[in-house]
Specification:
The structure holds two protein chains of two kinds. Chain A is an alpha/beta fold. Helices cover 33% and strands 29% of the residues of chain A. Chain A has a five-stranded mixed β-sheet, covered by helices on one side. In chain A, helix 2 packs parallel to helix 4. Chain B is 50% helix and 16% strand. In chain B, helix 4 runs antiparallel to helix 5 and helix 7 packs antiparallel against helix 8. The chains are: A alpha/beta, B alpha+beta.
Chain lengths: 206, 407
């Protein structure tokens, strides 16, 4: 009887100690994360993968004869990357990142095809309201010679049904990027970047 | 008071509190009221009710499913998709079996576990998300859902639970919208294999009655359009109301005969819809498959509860305490889990018909099995277009009511 009372008291003290000490598991916390660090929470596509594969594509494109042999930076339009995975992937983020790196390198120029409507609206507004010396001239936009497009595909395999406490999941991704000559319709340059990752997912939790 | 008595009293008090909590938690009046409003045509009110509804965390998936469906009926396709996608994400997380909830379900009832829905309900989360994406012409995202549908129908996920042709058809159609014709044809072929009465052409996705079948209602009354249009309309047609859990085993519940819809344009019949899935059949087959497991679990739970009640009776030397415990554990807490996605339609059909190239609106004439018109819905939106294919959907629901009589 005495022993059980002692045990009960001890348990209460431990419990109180845990709460009062502000055990990390019971606290809300935030921390800055270096985006350059590789961080994966599972086997599926994440921001580290986005950064890696876009950088690899840009590096390959910058070192390719397609860009190296050009006397002036070619004008490119982005047609988008098709999401062929079973997940919601912001493929525009992929092409935005590529475009940023290529513009900053000075190796290519891009038309802003996503903002054409706004662009025309602004030109129309200026034609009607802006002073003649600050007005942009209509009909002087540059046409793109090349189109950048591609696709991101995924293949997933999971361990078969069996008695187990965790599930193995393997995801393979392949990004294909191609640059098409708008005049000839020929694919002027293409590349593939691929990666695969395996993760173990618990089937039993608290 | 002896320690044994004190423990017994504490256990009884704990059980009372548990019973009260569980009984309160199991009831989801907001969901029930929203469903009632939905089927009464009060879509905005039904949605409002579920926006800030206080629903137990274990019913979160169900709330998202119901709200997603209600929002789809109000034309809020993006919001509806957000709900369905959130439900799918939660369902993925719920694949991890919760030991604590599992243990609680062994001594309380199955209602203390998080709602995961049946396999066909989980597939339909993706099907109705795909409908939303098609309604806003987001072909890539519709294809994402097509892949999720296919994944959910994989034998390693679905096990031996029944498959339905509508989900396969939807997957095939979404893939055809991104020009993945070979995979679309595969899905159409699989859909065709499931259907007894109809054939789905793997190349065109058109649906035809099987030659030997003569029970398609009012078949001869529907004449093919005279014009040879190069354009086609694919209209997903939903009718009826998915049965509640108790309906599946209710002998007096009348399942009714399959309805269908005629697609008309300026008074001219373009074609009709064909039934590819019946949620009553899916629910019944699923319930049959789960019956043995559920009975075994219930028997085990009742035995465990008897053991607990006996232990209390013996420890307290009081038959009344044992009976009280028995009443709480078996009489009050032993409740069947009746949670189900109830805003799902009963019949899921497809009408794939030739149509004029300038299609801006059309009529969906819902008909009962005898061919009598039940309701006509004029469809102006959503009508999206991908090359020569117009895409739309329509559900046999009462017209929206704005009256403030029911809340």
């Amino acid at each position: 009887m005495k022993n059980s009372a002692m045990l009960l008291n001890l348990g209460l003290v431990v419990l109180l100690g845990l709460f009062s000490s502000g055990c990390a598991a019971f606290r809300a916390s935030t921390a800055d994360v270096d985006v350059r660090e590789q961080r994966h929470m599972g086997s599926t596509y994440d921001y580290s993968d986005m950064r890696n594969i876009t950088q690899d594509v840009v590096n390959e494109l910058l070192n390719s004869p397609f860009l190296r042999d050009k006397t002036s930076p070619p004008i490119v339009m982005i047609a988008g990357v098709q999401n062929r995975t079973s997940r919601y992937v912001d493929t525009k983020a992929l092409t935005d990142k590529m475009r940023t790196a290529l513009i900053q390198s000075g190796a290519a120029q891009f038309v802003n095809e996503a903002r054409r409507e706004e662009l025309l609206r602004e030109q129309g507004y200026q034609a009607a309201h802006a002073t003649a010396d600050t007005q942009v001239q209509v009909g002087r936009q540059l046409g793109a010679r090349y189109m950048l497009s591609g696709s991101l595909m995924e293949m997933e395999s999971t361990s078969p049904r069996q008695v187990r406490v965790s599930k193995q999941q393997l995801n393979y991704y392949k990004l294909t990027i191609e640059v098409t000559d708008l005049e000839t319709g020929l694919i002027a340059w293409t590349t593939e970047q691929e990666f695969a990752r395996q993760a173990s997912l618990p089937l039993i939790g608290w | 008071m002896s320690l044994r008595r004190a423990i017994a009293h504490l256990s009884a008090a704990g059980c009372f509190i548990l019973a009260a909590l569980v009984l309160c938690g199991c009831r989801t009046p907001a969901l029930q009221a929203a469903r009632y409003q939905f089927y009464a045509g009060q879509y905005e009110k039904a949605e409002e009710r579920l926006v800030d509804a206080k629903v137990p965390e274990i019913d979160r998936v169900l709330l998202l499913m119901e709200r997603g469906m209600i929002r789809q009926a109000t034309g809020k396709y993006e919001e509806s998709s957000s709900d369905f996608i959130a439900a799918a994400d939660l369902l993925e997380k719920l694949q991890t079996y919760s030991v604590s909830k599992g243990a609680a379900s062994l001594v309380v009832n199955d209602g203390v576990q998080s709602f995961r829905g049946t396999p066909f309900e989980r597939t339909y989360v993706h099907v109705f998300t795909a409908i939303n994406h098609l309604s806003v012409a987001n072909w890539d995202n519709a294809a994402v859902e097509a892949r999720r549908i296919i994944k959910s129908l994989d034998p390693s996920v679905k096990s031996d639970y029944p498959e339905d042709a509508f989900s396969r058809y939807m997957a095939g159609f979404c893939l055809s919208m991104i020009d993945d014709d070979s995979n679309a044809a595969l899905q159409y072929r699989l859909a065709s294999g499931i259907l007894d009465q109809y054939i789905v052409s793997p190349d065109t996705g058109r649906i035809y009655p099987r030659p030997a079948t003569n029970d398609a209602p009012n078949q001869e009354a529907i004449l093919p359009p005279e014009e040879r249009w190069s354009h086609e309309l694919v209209c997903f047609v939903f009718m009826g109301r998915s049965p509640g859990s108790s309906d599946v085993w209710n002998e007096r519940w009348n399942p009714g005969r399959t309805m269908y819809a005629e697609i008309q344009h300026k008074g001219k019949v373009l074609g009709r819809s064909y039934n590819l899935a019946d949620t009553f059949e899916l629910a019944f087959t699923t319930a049959e498959m789960e019956a043995a497991r559920k009975v075994a679990k219930t028997v085990g739970r009742v035995i465990l509860k008897e053991v607990i009640a006996d232990a209390v009776e013996n420890q307290t030397d009081s038959a009344a305490a044992g009976e009280l415990m028995r009443f709480i554990l078996i009489g009050l807490l032993e409740q069947p889990d009746l949670r189900r996605w109830e805003t799902l339609p009963r019949w899921l059909q497809v009408a794939r018909v030739p149509c004029p190239p300038e299609l801006e609106s059309f009529d969906v004439v819902f008909k009962n099995a005898a061919g009598a018109t039940v309701r006509t819905v004029h469809v102006e939106k959503p009508i999206t277009r991908r090359r020569n294919t117009f895409i739309s959907f329509s559900r046999d629901l009462p017209p929206p009511q704005n009256s403030a009589d029911t809340k």
